[in-house]
Amino acid sequence: MPSQPDLTAASLHTPISLIGVPTDIGAGRLGAAMGPDALRVAQLGPALSELGCEVRDLGNLAGPANQRKPRDAEHGNLRNFGEAVAWNQAVHDAVHGQLAAGRMPLMLGGDHSLAVGSISAVARHCRDTGKRLYVLWLDAHADFNTPDTSPSGNIHGIPVACLSGLGPRELTHLAGFAPALGPQSLCQIGLRSVDAQEKHLIKTHNIDVFDMRAIDELGMRETMLRALAPLAGCDPSQTHLHLSFDVDFLDPEIAPGTGTTVRGGPNYREAQLCMEMIADTGLLGSIDIVELNPALDLRNQTAELVVDLVQSLFGKSTLVKDLRR
Ligand SMILES: NC(=[NH2+])NCCC[C@H](N)C(=O)O
Ligand SMILES: [Mn+2]
Ligand SMILES: [Mn+2]
Question: By the 8 A CB rule, do 319 and 49 touch?
């Protein structure tokens, strides 16, 4: 029997701020800008209140309009660069403000480019407070392209590189320093579609990766034990765990509502176990939910699944003999 986690730990009691980021400026197709509302329709806020969390919905951030442009040689051959920078500045400021106020920011995306802003803000907060930062990146993709290697020019494919200090200064230095994230502070799980040059970068940067082959071989339990091992024994008051959850991490059979599906992802129970083991750490300090695309969803089923999984991050459990939940 594994030792029981201390469920009185901080994260269960940290008040939550929902922050809508209605943009798909970094994605190849339109629709993720409607993600925040789909999560609200699926009752994300009430689902967390039901678990005893204090939840405040701060509404949607404002940002530039979705004027989609072609790749632009002046901006590293990326698409919609200026707009993505403006959105990320807004995200950075909002997240930093909520953390400073002692609240847990939960981003309702929006495409994955927003993670540059959110994680930069978390990194800045951790530097200000002397906390140790650890990021779990759940995704079918590595999002480790640079402007030079990106096959698409889509900015949602480059956030991990930007956070690692590779990319345009406007995105690498949002926190005021770079890199926002050292390789020891990042672990990627669920990868199954990684471009050749991304593989090279992951290797040279020595990023911890549990790809789908690892999950197949180890199972989700052992994968998560290993992914969370660097946090063993950490003092909750000195440690900040950030979860960046790309909906395409999930198998498209259960989560069709996202723009870049890749088959062969975690199933419902594997995803639940993953969330429950993250919850058990008691260290969760901030979350991105990204790439939900209601235009591609079926009767909001992907949004409802995400709400179900987020409930597991906050203590909903299938453990029968644990009366604390
Ligand atoms: N956040 C995502 N869904 N990213 C998909 C990235 C796909 C591809 N690697 C690219 O750079 O364009
Ligand atoms: Mn992805
Ligand atoms: Mn992603």
Answer: no
